Structure formats: C-alpha cells, structure tokens
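Subject: Predicted fold for CBU-0592-like domain-containing protein, 82 residues

User T.R. writes:
Posting the sequence so we have a shared reference for the thread.
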Amino acid sequence: MAIVIEGIGWIAAVLILASYLLVSMGRLSGTSGAFQWLNVVGAAGFIVNSGSHGAWPSTILNVVWCLIGVVTLARLWGKRAP
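User M.O. replies:
I've generated the structure tokens; pasting them so everyone works from the same file.
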C-alpha cells in the first residue's frame, strides 16, 4: 500500500507541475477547465499522500487548493449552461 500512496504523490506532483508549466508557457489559461482539472486531481493526490504521512499542514493546504479548483470548475460549468 505504501508504494501505491507514493505513486499517487508522484502523479500529483507531475500534474501540478504540468499545470504550472503549461500556464507559464501560455499553453493554458489560468481560468481554463484543463488547468483547474489538473490542479484538482493533483491536489486530491497530494491530500492522499500527505495525509497518509501525517503532514497535516500540507494536507489542509491541498484540501483548500482542491476546493478552490472545484468551485472554479462549478463556475465555469455554470457559465456554459443555458
């Protein structure tokens, strides 16, 4: 199980770094759905990883990070609906 949790942490790190790189390169907008999904899934992975290690400040940070992304996605979804 420890290997799975570590794998989740590494995947989360790749997703967060990819989202930052893509925005920095101008490939994604910071308000795009793709950027938000990368961050939500990455933050969720960090919640699992840091929570399992008892790193509570990191866990709470990523809970908030994830919630910000979910709220932003909901707003984006609301703008699409007729």
